[in-house]
Amino acid sequence: MAGIARYDDIADFYAAGWTDDIDDPASRRLLDLVGPVAGRRVLEIACGHGRISRALARRGAEVVGADLSAALIAKAEAVERESPMGIRYVHTDVTAGPAASAGLRELGAFDVVVCSFGLSDIDDLDGALATTAATLRPGGVFACSILHPCFPGAQEVSGSWPTGGRYHDEGWWRADGELSSLRRQVGANHRTLSTYLNALRRHDLWLDEVAEPEPAPEWAARRPDAAAFPVFLVLRCVRG
Questions:
Q1: For this UniProt entry, which segments traverse the membrane (predicted)?
Q2: How far apart are CA 104 and CA 109, in angstroms?
Q3: Which of 18, 138, 239, 240 has the fewest CB atoms nearer than 10 Å to its CB?
Q4: 106: pLDDT confidence band, cut at 50, 70 and 90?
């Protein structure tokens, strides 16, 4: 595996903190933008412990989940064994070029590819999007959610880029906000909005709809300084 499986060491923490209750605004909007999936073949990249994969399967999709973390894939497979939904999980590095694309294409072309808050975990954005485009059928949908690249953070909440840094300073970093428990452990790749949009265009993934869902009202009420800014970004693209 060429990538770094940062989640292997925190698999228990992550699975406990992000349950199958799809009640956060970004995940709900992501599933809305994907649209009806009954009878469609869906690939989730950076699937983690399978939270979104299971939500898609419950909506009638034929789902394959792929992730670099062997520990998270093991958790996803354990849930599948206990409550079978027909989901297939694959331990793979989706940035590994033609080898990754070929391995996933052997499972058949996909109608939809989804990535929930995973692109900032992936160091090689172009590699991941190349695999996405290679596994999608023409006219297929790619939908993703990320922390908004323009979110500057606020008291106790880390933003998209390092404290004391600038929006235009791209690169991997580790958060220091007290409430940013996940990103303090695994870090994140900050990229500007233009970097994301231009990368999608390079890989023939054409922007079709954009959403900037507001955080949950209770979260916003506790952190009005953070909620004054865009927090989430959800994109729907169509493969040319």
A1: none
A2: 8
A3: 138
A4: confident
Question: Looking at the 3D structure of the chain, how many domains does it have?
Answer: 1
Is the pTM of the predicted complex or chain greater than 0.90? Answer: yes
Secondary structure letter of residue 214 according to DSSP: P
In a domain, 1, yes or no: no
Residue 43 lies in a domain: yes
Determine, yes or no, domain membership for 173: yes
Tokens coding 142 = 């790619």
Q: How do residues 36-91 score in pLDDT, each as one tens digit?
A: 999 999 999 999 999 999 999 999 999 999 999 999 999 999 999 999 999 999 99
Q: What is the CATH number of the domain that holds 187?
A: 3.40.50.150
**In the predicted structure, residue 1 carries a pLDDT above the cut 80:** no
219 domain-assigned: yes
